[in-house]
Design brief:
- The complex is a heterodimer of chains A (470) and B (166).
- Chain A has 470 residues and is an alpha/beta fold.
- Chain A folds into 2 domains: 293 residues, no CATH class; 49 residues, no CATH class.
- Chain A is 27% helix and 35% strand.
- Chain A is built from 12 helices and 24 strands.
- In chain A, the strands form 3 sheets. In chain A, strands 5, 6, 8, 9, 11, 12, 14, 16, 17, 19, 21 and 23 form a 12-stranded mixed beta sheet that branches. A 10-stranded mixed beta sheet of chain A has the order 4-3-7-10-13-15-18-20-22-24.
- The N and C termini of chain A lie close together (11 Å).
- Chain B is mostly beta strands.
- Chain B has 2 domains: 132 residues, no CATH class; 32 residues.
- Chain B starts with a strand and ends with a helix.
- The model of chain B has no long low-confidence stretch (mean pLDDT 91).
- Classes of the chains: A alpha/beta (470), B mainly beta (166).
């Protein structure tokens, strides 16, 4: 294989294109109280939201940067655009979008996917949701799928009841930042006993340089309902850094189930600092499926708070850290009631000098009885320049919990390689097969087309590795 | 803090016989060093144990086995931190750390933080933690043979500590 080809493949981030900026409104660079007020004013928000934002901004200023996890010292909060309004409101037809934006989504393939296997789509470009659709029969059943801003306008009481309940603005510095300058994101409400068969999807895209995207998502599944939500994220490649800091709040009511799938493929100049939390009530089930491939630094630990008896949670996390990337991912499960159970499976791969870390928490409260929790995290390091860490915490109080955790760090197994090559498979293909087999338990939980995309991406990344090894 | 290093070491500790805190740094400095660390903790009443073990692989082909088992009664508390570090370039290292807690008291508290910091790919490193009560079925079996519940549980605890790990 020629060297040129491998190089080409390595740089093959197919979402790295951008379109010229032609926006309705672009805030001044930097952050200040005037920016926070400005965002609220443009959105014509109720007074309580403005106060919520201003209060969060104060908390943001008072909180220190986290000293753990990845290197955050390069983030310059004054060198970021906090609000970009790309178009005049949300449209229901792709044709009505401004040219550049429509072309972007065509290239990513969203309109095509929508027709084939989705119940509804939200597309967020920069700070605002620009496109939205939902199947008509779901609207009839009372399912609400709106941009967060529109939801605040139309379902103010519902938003007010849940907003900031799972992730308060004082939770951490970045949840405070998001609460101050949030814009866009999805709002989903599924009424009692309604099952949404096909997934709902949101697509987040950053186009401008030095952009900050702060979407805010709130999902409520009422008793006995089910919904599967997928989010995808991409951005163009720039040398300047961008910041993505989302807050996702989820409420799973009695007997309900939510599956939340993330395919994070930001370009490698994006800081991805996200707070995601789900409250699960009696016999509810929450599933996070989390794939992290892109970004410069990701710090994301989807959390499950098991609030009532019989609640269950699962976190499936996959991270791929390539050159100049640090994936600090993981998951948290907090058992606050009896007979709750949780499972976390994490698989990470690091190569080309990348660093993959697992950070997790299992907490069992004193009065919770018969709780079960099982954590498995496996890491694969593909070359000598890469690094892998595991930082779990198990905090168990009381007598009736069963908690287990196991982790391992390995390289591609020589015996397996030898076996495959002895059967006539080339060394490169063999390594590829082994790595794909390693992440298979997680990848199979992704929707088909994403699973294929993940396998493709990983093969590309490995190509570079085979080159290094030679 | 206690520092141990050397070619082939077996290190044993037993708490609370030797106090409530244990800070141990194991430095594997020479090629082919092998270390075997085993600790036993039996906590009762309000006893509180702080354990911090660091296994640092500073040379190639070094290996370590670290097993810490705790049986906690009443309101005993255990804070455990165990870190395996493999420095860059130290190929062929093999390290395993296991921490198991058998919970026998109503108000036991366990905080366990096993860490892995691996900067080399040609290694085999893993850890495992478990925190659990005695298996109900095992207790039931022993009781069905005529043992009292307390006796049965004590027998299981003995076995838990006594079984030669690995």
């Amino acid at each position: 294989m020629s060297k040129v080809k491998s190089n080409l493949n390595l740089d093959d981030y197919k979402y790295g294109f951008s379109y010229p900026e032609d926006y309705v409104f672009k805030s001044k660079k930097g952050l200040g109280e005037n920016i926070v007020r400005g965002i609220s004013k443009i959105k014509k928000e109720p007074l309580w939201m403005l106060e919520y934002r201003l209060n969060a901004y104060k908390i943001f200023l008072s909180k220190k940067m986290p000293a753990w996890g990845g290197d955050l010292s390069k983030i310059d909060f004054d060198d970021i655009y906090y609000y970009l309004k790309p178009s005049q409101g949300e449209v229901q037809k792709w044709e009505d979008l401004p040219k550049g934006i429509k072309a972007t989504y065509d290239r990513i393939g969203i309109p095509e996917a929508e027709q084939k296997y989705l119940s509804g789509v939200k597309a967020q470009y920069e700070s605002e949701v620009v496109y939205g659709s939902l199947l008509a029969d779901l609207t009839k059943k009372g399912v609400i799928f709106l941009g967060m801003d529109e939801a605040l306008e139309k379902h103010s009481a519902l938003v007010m009841e849940y907003f900031g309940k799972a992730v308060p603005s004082a939770d951490n510095k970045f949840s405070a930042l998001n609460s101050a300058v949030w814009s866009g994101g999805s709002f989903i409400y599924v009424p009692k006993n309604v099952k949404v068969d096909l997934p709902l999807q949101a697509y987040f895209r950053m186009n401008a340089k030095k952009m900050g995207q702060f979407e805010r998502t709130l999902i409520i599944a009422d008793e006995g309902s089910f919904v599967s939500y997928i989010e995808g994220c991409t951005a163009p490649v720039y040398s300047a850094n961008s910041l993505h800091s989302a807050v996702v709040e989820i409420f799973v009511k009695k007997n309900a189930r939510i599956r939340y799938t993330t395919v994070q493929n930001w370009s490698k100049n994006v800081y991805n600092l996200v707070t995601k939390r789900a409250f699960v009530y009696e016999n509810g089930i929450m599933e996070w499926v989390d794939g992290n491939i892109g970004s410069k630094l990701t710090m994301k630990y989807p959390s499950i708070y098991l609030m009532e008896q019989g609640a269950k949670g699962a976190i499936l996390s996959m991270a791929f850290a390539g050159k100049n990337q640090h994936q600090d991912a993981g998951g948290k499960a907090v058992h606050l009631a009896s007979k709750t159970s949780s499972q976390i499976i994490s698989k990470s791969i690091s190569r080309g000098g990348g660093r993959a870390s697992y950070r997790g928490l299992i907490k069992v409260a004193n009065l919770a009885e018969n709780c079960k929790s099982n954590v498995v995290c496996d890491a694969l390091i593909l070359d000598e320049n890469s690094r892998s860490d595991t930082y779990p915490i198990m905090d168990v109080k009381g007598a009736y919990a069963r908690v287990s955790h196991e982790a391992s760090v390995n390289k591609v197994d020589e015996d397996q390689l030898f076996y495959l090559t002895s059967r006539g498979v080339s060394k490169h293909d063999a390594a590829n097969m082994i790595v794909n087999g390693f992440i298979e338990p997680i990848v199979k939980e992704f929707p088909m087309e994403y699973a294929m995309e993940l396998n493709r991406l990983i093969s590309i990344e490995l190509e570079g590795n085979a080159k290094n090894r030679r | 803090m206690q520092k141990i290093e050397g070619k082939k070491i077996k290190y044993r500790f037993n708490l609370p016989n030797s106090g409530y805190d244990k800070k141990l740094v194991v430095d594997l400095k020479n090629k082919n060093d092998v270390v075997d660390v085993r600790g036993i903790i039996v906590g009762r009443g309000n006893e509180k144990f702080n354990i911090n073990i660091e296994i640092v692989h500073r040379a190639k082909n070094t290996s370590a086995r670290t097993v810490v088992k705790a049986v906690l009664y009443d309101s005993a508390q255990l804070n455990f931190k165990g870190c395996i570090k493999v420095l860059k370039g130290m190929r062929g290292c093999d390290s395993f750390l296991m921490q198991r807690t058998l919970v026998l008291g109503e108000n036991v508290q366990v905080n366990s933080k096993p860490h892995l910091e691996i900067e080399e790919n040609n290694v085999k490193c893993s850890h495992s933690v478990s925190i659990a009560r005695p298996n109900e079925e095992e207790v039931f079996y022993l009781m069905s043979r005529g043992l009292s519940k307390d006796f049965a549980i004590n027998l299981i605890a003995d076995g838990f500590i006594g079984v030669r790990p690995l």
